[in-house]
């Protein structure tokens, strides 16, 4: 599963057409300059193409039509957390980081120095895995300086060959991140090299030719089986090369003499299961100490995202990786076995996953990551922010404070298993933040004392005029009871033994058994006692109740309520407003915490109804669903029921996320008092966060519409969402929306009589 290196060029087959195209592009760069960007899916073979293909080809035969290019020197690296340091290291100038950070153009002087003993030659700089620039590097200034340095290196020179040819490899799902940087836009537009899926014939060559070159034979029919297992869908096979590599390497381990056999291939689990089978075998064969060590260490090799998208591999130093392991010798043994199976790669001081395919193909690792996701993301973010604080010269404005600091300060982790305490800079960052927070608290104390009685009196008046906050203990009891009642024993593998049950769903003791906790502990929790509930216990209960991500978050908010009094937002974020204004052919709006519409385009009013005809405080999605009578007849009853369910469920999730928002509390009180439908759905204790698919109704002016809804949130702006819609080009709905856009008057709104 590990990529090919330059030393493997004699076993690298099947990519000859792509290699020739890449070499021709670099030959062209001799004249026009500029970096070349190799773009492909994860697992499409970018690294192997660069190493065993490009580097080896330049070493052995040079660039086509470019005299004297044989043996040109090359430097390969990935950006890592500090891309500028990686770059100057590659140019043999490790002390020059600060120089190019402030003046990127000076990087050409470093390249000239690196080539001083090789006059007339050009340096080949390969930046692999550019996505690390967006996942591991958190300093936007460093990102900009790094990209500017690459552009300066690759720039064409008058009447002379360029000093440097720059090749960048980018994972396709980070294309949008790259386009956000002006330094990369021209390269992606004019000098992009998409890596194509391998054809069936190329896959055959990738299997048969390395075997022949090494004196092995391939059993009749084996190649046909492997190619068939890979499938004919180019989208599916584009990222399947690590699966092929691992399956064939495992088959070689089960060879019969010098023959690769069908039986050996079948024993590996084939393309679909070879990686999973190898990893699971090592885990299952380890003793308890070894299993515990793998459980602790492997999630540390993953850079996670809070939403679960785009998880990526990240390197870890050996000392940090094994911190907290009870038996270091056992930990080293299981790491050695993972290395022998080519699942991880170790060098003298770092460890990394051999390929991110392990994240996709091993369910046990995915489960571990999902269980630890919240804390992994929070601690990784904190460690990254500590680096930015260090690079800024310890700017106090970057220190955590308030609820952000409290979430780190109040973490419940054993010292030996705390990644923050394992990191020197992060520990200093935390200490500085705590000291700064203590100083602010002392400075505020006198003012708070003087104004305390006034604030309390004012708060009592406000609460009395709006709504009494809801009882979280009662909500927790109701939520757990409702979820438990919705699970049938036979659906979760609990034997019913033919006994007739007086109440539906699971009993408390059955739920506790599924969660792996004591009945007493669970009973106390269901009764509203939330003390000493660890993250592990919370995750176990959520899994036993089969909660989705929204349900998991809601349960966590009830057990560990957010500590801040969050104020409601009444204006759309400027970036979201710009997006809404730019969308003219479909409805688009910005939705706030309780479904309040903070910004909208003209098509929103034309498609649904004229929101300007109602008071600003009633311009909300729940008001539209439960109180306005205009739109309900447009929808089939079952679709309207789903819309109403999601509206109430979304508000309940927002209530748990922002418990101190008085506007939100008042809104919930109002809706419960004026809408029986809302009250009924609110009492169902369901939560939801996501788009409605599909959104179908019959518009009175243009007829039937079939829309697909999308929701998007900006990073760091989790209480607003851009809601927009898409349709298939050429369908009736597209034409209907075009006719709708020509209308002058939106549908009329029937205001509530209450």
TrEMBL record:
The lineage of its organism: Bacteria, Bacillati, Actinomycetota, Actinomycetes, Mycobacteriales. The keyword Ribosomal protein does not apply. The chain crosses the membrane at residues 445-468. Coiled coil: none annotated. PANTHER family: BLL4672 PROTEIN, BLL4672 PROTEIN-RELATED. Keywords: Membrane, Transmembrane, Transmembrane helix. Residues 505-552 form the HTH cro/C1-type domain. Pfam families: HTH_31 (PF13560), MLTR_LBD (PF17765), nSTAND1 (PF20703). The keyword Membrane applies. This is AAA family ATPase.
